Amino acid sequence: MKGRTTMEVGADGVAVITIINPPVNSLSLDVLQSLRASFDEALRRNDVKAIVVTGAKGKFSGGFDITTFGGIQNGKTESPKRGYVAVEVLTDIVEASRKPSVAAIDGLALGGGLEVAMACHARISTSNVQLGLPELQLGIIPGFGGTQRLPRLVGLSKALEMMLTSKAVRGSEAHDLGLVDAVVPANELLSAARRWALDIVERRKPWVSSLYKTDKLEPLGEAREILKFARAQARKQAPNLRHPQVCIDVIEEGIASGPRAGLWKEADAFEELLRSDTCKSLVHIFFAQRGTSKVPGVTDLGLSSRRIKKVAVIGGGLMGSGIATALVLSSYPVVLKEVNNKLLEAGIGRVKANLQSRVKKGKMTEEKFGKTMSLIQGSLDYDNFRDVDIVIEAVIENVSLKQQIFADLEKYCPPHCILASNTSTIDLNLIGEKTWSQDRIVGAHFFSPAHIMPLLEIVRTQKTSPQVIVDVLDLGKKIKKTPVIVGNCTGFAVNRMFFPYTQAAMLLVEHGTDLHKIDRAITKFGMPMGPFRLVDLVGFGVGVATAMQYIEHFPDRTYKSMIIPLMQEDKRAGESTRKGFYLYDDKRKASPDPELKKYIEKAREISGISVDPKIANLPEKDIIEMIFFPVVNEACRVLAEGIAVKASDLDIAGVMGMGFPPYRGGILFWADMLGSKYIYSRLEEWSKQYGGFFKPCAYMAEKAAKGAPLSSGPMKQAKSRM
Ligand SMILES: C[C@H](O)CC(=O)SCCNC(=O)CCNC(=O)[C@H](O)C(C)(C)COP(=O)(O)OP(=O)(O)OC[C@H]1O[C@@H](n2cnc3c(N)ncnc32)[C@H](O)[C@@H]1OP(=O)(O)O
């Protein structure tokens, strides 16, 4: 049995029903059955006057049990019958009952959890709760009546905002909105809820059925205008997603035809969306994201993370200052070291600017800004390094400079101190070559801007100790990053996948595809921007430096295009020079540049390539495949080499590091939906026509031959660089 409820009846005549299903008291099918049985019993018993519903261990409920989705999708678990929870249990038993019920909410009431609470006749919460309907994040809509009750409790506009953004509200805001009736301290929660329930019995408090409240709803005409606006916004923000539109349709049905009709429409839409590819992909991402910090041989050894009290960052450039910002934002005291006063001031200035931008956006108060800034201490030497627990080096990519820094760190830092490098290209073994500290050397690869980008690649060598990895994993989570563990190699996971992405785009342009058509197709697919707009943003300097690394390490599959070097000769460097693949105005708005043709034609001449009519007229589907299948191919290599622990880590690395659309489930999840055989055959075909850049790797060939999913992993995990 997966979870249950208990019921205790007090001398006051209040039955307290407690949801128990650790860790978040999710509503499994067993919990839902048990909840119904508890309610039935409470309604039957003569000694029960009123009911309080709560969750065990300070958490009301994290919603419907997401682990059951897979079973329902593949038919192994039977879905509850149509309308069973939303209509039969929550509406016709809980809400329609002749005994009042009050939800006592602590910790969280999300999704189905909040929907259960909304079916009760009142809600009492603590101040620190999270209340929300985040179902859209999973590709579904609220399915236990939330689309009908939330608008009636908080008003249509706020309900739409909460559902479409999946953002939760805290206790006091929920109170102001009318979502909860009172906010009380945690130790008074149950007694306040009991009293409230008895007050309803005594008619001292109103007996409210949320489903039939109308005072917060606008007249139909006005409501339709609000819904029309929400539809347009959702279409603009998520053009590839259907479920936000379905959610709005379901809400509208309830307003136009009454809440019961809305409930039935919700039930049908929920069932259909639960089986959609979008839901499967987003649920995969939900678990994959939580799975990145589960590393066999590391996190299963029973090690606890050591407390990190103070951090040092070496280098106050763009990366170093971004990393320092991320750390102080999570209340870590940081020593920022630079080589001279001018650079130090510039570094601290960058941290200040990063924080000030939060103040401007209303995300930080002036007082908090002052407190956060006070956590940064500048330094020109290692005197302040004697009590740091971790150092993150973020200087330029120069081997001997890094070697010197690490040798110095070994001298000045305490012996337990973790020595991390933010290098994106240099072998960590080389960096630590001049030290005896190989077991505490680790990579902490942030993505720019480091205080905003959510991914952290934690790079381990064969000598990095599991304790150090556990510590950095914990630090990563504390600074709100999703950490992914990778092995030591050129480009790690994200840059290895990024490289074929931009290379394929260059290849297509040289062979005749219009570059704007490529950027358009890729953006339509769901990437935040196309490859050419991205290269402009990153800058040609960084692009060429990375390409050099690839030519050196993977010469057989590097496509050498002269387009960028030719543009560099004319002092084009991308957005920073306002001229790259696009022209940029003061507001960074990109427009096409007619001069581009000249560089492309010259590059073709140098490579001896002529326009291929097939490539010049490539349909969007083929553009997407010719750009992403090489990425899939590289992801397969990364997996086969043991650089990534598991396929789902690469899905997360792609989503968080490259902007791959999460609703496609990540690069390998998406690839498996298309099938290994198909991808292999296309790559084979292109490699014959356009060269080794497309050649499918041995791992892919093996999976295609067996018709096996690419995400199934190597038969035997490569020892490689782990
Ligand atoms: C019909 C209904 O309308 C449909 C629904 O209700 S769909 C579900 C809606 N609910 C949600 O989307 C909430 C999803 N959960 C979350 O956002 C977060 O997990 C949380 C805010 C509840 C807790 O966050 P946090 O404390 O950081 O812990 P987190 O690591 O995320 O979760 C702890 C564990 O609970 C699991 N979990 C969380 N919510 C779950 C859920 N609804 N079902 C099953 N497992 C869940 C996680 O997978 C994780 O498991 P693990 O330890 O084995 O990895």
UniProtKB/TrEMBL annotation:
One Gene Ontology cellular component annotation held by this UniProt entry: peroxisome
Gene name of the record: LOC110707499
CDD domains: crotonase-like
Protein name per UniProt: 3-hydroxyacyl-CoA dehydrogenase
This protein's UniProt keywords: Fatty acid metabolism, Isomerase, Lipid metabolism, Lyase, Multifunctional enzyme, NAD, Oxidoreductase, Peroxisome
SUPFAM superfamilies, alphabetized: 6-phosphogluconate dehydrogenase C-terminal domain-like, ClpP/crotonase, NAD(P)-binding Rossmann-fold domains
Localization per record: Peroxisome
MF terms in GO: (3S)-3-hydroxyacyl-CoA dehydrogenase (NAD+) activity; 3-hydroxybutyryl-CoA epimerase activity; delta(3)-delta(2)-enoyl-CoA isomerase activity; enoyl-CoA hydratase activity; NAD+ binding
Main location: other
One example of a Gene Ontology biological process annotation: fatty acid beta-oxidation
Residues of the 3-hydroxyacyl-CoA dehydrogenase C-terminal domain: 491-584
Pathway assigned in UniProt: Lipid metabolism; fatty acid beta-oxidation
Catalyzed reaction equations: a 4-saturated-(3S)-3-hydroxyacyl-CoA = a (3E)-enoyl-CoA + H2O; a (3E)-enoyl-CoA = a 4-saturated (2E)-enoyl-CoA; a (3Z)-enoyl-CoA = a 4-saturated (2E)-enoyl-CoA; a (3S)-3-hydroxyacyl-CoA = a (2E)-enoyl-CoA + H2O
Domain 3-hydroxyacyl-CoA dehydrogenase NAD binding residue range list: 310-488
InterPro entries given in the database record: 3-OHacyl-CoA_DH_CS, 3-OHacyl-CoA_DH_NAD-bd, 3HC_DH_C, 6-PGluconate_DH-like_C_sf, ClpP/crotonase-like_dom_sf, Enoyl-CoA_hyd/isom_CS, Enoyl-CoA_hydra/iso, NAD(P)-bd_dom_sf
Superkingdom as given in the UniProt entry: Eukaryota
Protein family membership: Belongs to the enoyl-CoA hydratase/isomerase family.
